[in-house]
Amino acid sequence: MTEEITKDIYRIGVSLPGNPLKELNSYFIRGKDRSLLIDTGFRRPECRKDLQKGLQELCADFDHLDVFATHLHADHSGMVRDFASEDGTIFMSDSDLKRLHIFLDEWSERKYLSRHLREGFPEDKLSYVADNNPAFQMTLEKIDDRFWAVEDGTEIPVGDYRLQVLSVPGHTPGNTMLWLKEQGIMFTSDHILFDITPNITAWTGVEDSLGDYLNSLEKVKDYPVKLSLPGHRKPGDYHERIRQLQRHHERRLAEVTEAVKKRPGMTAYEIAGYMKWKISAGSWDEFPPIQQWFAVGECMAHIDYLLKRGVIRREEGAAGGRPVYK
Fold first, then answer.
1. Under 8 Å between Cβ of 155 and 162
2. In this structure, what is the dihedral angle of CA atoms 43, 45, 46, 49, given to the nearest 10 degrees?
3. Residue 3 DSSP SS3
4. Measured between alpha carbons, how far is residue 162 from residues 21, 34, 67 in Å?
5. Hey, is 123 helix, strand or coil?
6. 40/220 Cα distance (integer angstroms)
7. What is the pLDDT of residues 251-273, one digit of tens each?
8. CA–CA separation, 10 vs 322, rounded Å?
9. 0.90 cut: is pTM over it?
10. Coil, strand or helix at 115
């Protein structure tokens, strides 16, 4: 349940039932007057039980606990209000905090899905996603006055440690990592994962999510990291993993370009069906709707990157009013 990383820093495993990620790595940093919890899990009973038990094992003082949400995704931010003490602070990037305000409105949630519909995603499957995706169903209920927006370079002291916030947009528009310079420890959030690839999707109001992500990798690639602490699964070689992720997206971009070249006039939904995905399904049509939703979001991010650089072009309204790519 809990694992000591180094003096006063612990990992708490929070199960994510029914989710391919399986578990969230929540981190607890013990301070003298106040302690800090990094990420919390979905707002659901199983996550609450795991996190509560882990904190109790560590004899955490629940009355003097602050929470840092590395980004807005519900598996990281869903229970921040539940575990921050009444007088505590809930830290989150200004960008993701503003988006959470919008996403708490159901109409905005549906609007967030609208590009998938325009890009050829079947309406019945999209309705299923809206009603069953944990990203919508298990997020926090509201934002209160404990939330505090942080920016790139913000420093947060906790006991003997001083955490520096690093803005790394891409996985979400306001995704962050936390850097302990003196110790060489990087909390990489979902920006850098080691045995799975972070999902990079096309965000409403963001011109080039993948370009942002690749720029963020470039921004942090030379930090002298000795130990990486990711949001999910196991840690690994920080610098080699960045190189692997860069090569991964080079291959993905080539894959999308080739699909468009061979079959001009496809929608994003159709292009995603010709991409390679690590999933147990016989064909694209057999993908579960939520996994198709993730795949199309990532496909659109790669399309946006190629459009911005003039590698492919969009024709509006060509397929029953839907855009197609050539």
1. yes
2. 100
3. strand
4. 29, 13, 15
5. helix
6. 24
7. 999 999 999 999 999 999 999 99
8. 49
9. yes
10. helix
Which DSSP helix (H) or strand (E) runs through 322?
Answer: strand 322-325
The length of the chain in residues reads 326
Can you list the positions of beta strands (E) in 17-136? 23-29, 35-38, 65-68, 90-93
Q: Which sequence spans correspond to the domains of the chain? A: 1-104+139-236, 109-134+251-326
- Taking CA atoms, 201 is separated from 208, 245, 270, in Å, by 10, 15, 16
Structure tokens at 295: 């795949």
Q: 171-175, 211-215, 321-325 — which is least confidently predicted?
A: 321-325
- What's 148-205 look like in SS3? EEECCCCEEEECCEEEEEEECCCCCCCCEEEEECCCCEEEEECCCCCCCCCCCCCCCC
Bridge-based pairing state of the strands 185-189 and 227-230: parallel
Burial class (CB in 10 A: 0-12, 13-18, 19+), 31: middle
What does the pLDDT look like over 7-54, one tens digit per residue? 999 999 999 988 888 999 999 999 999 999 999 999 999 999 999 999
Say which residue the tokens 């505090």 belong to.
148
Taking the CB of residue 113, how many other CB atoms lie within 10 A of it? 18
Q: Got the DSSP string for 4-41?
A: EEETTEEEEEEE-TT-TT-EEEEEEE--SS-EEEE---
Helix or strand holding residue 315 (H, E): strand 314-319
Share of the chain above pLDDT 90, in %: 83
Q: CA nearest 71: which of 214, 191, 211?
A: 191
Domain covering 1-104+139-236 in this structure, CATH number? 3.60.15.10
Convert the pLDDT of each residue in 30-39 to its tens digit.
999 999 999 9
The pair of structure tokens assigned to 205 is 């109001």
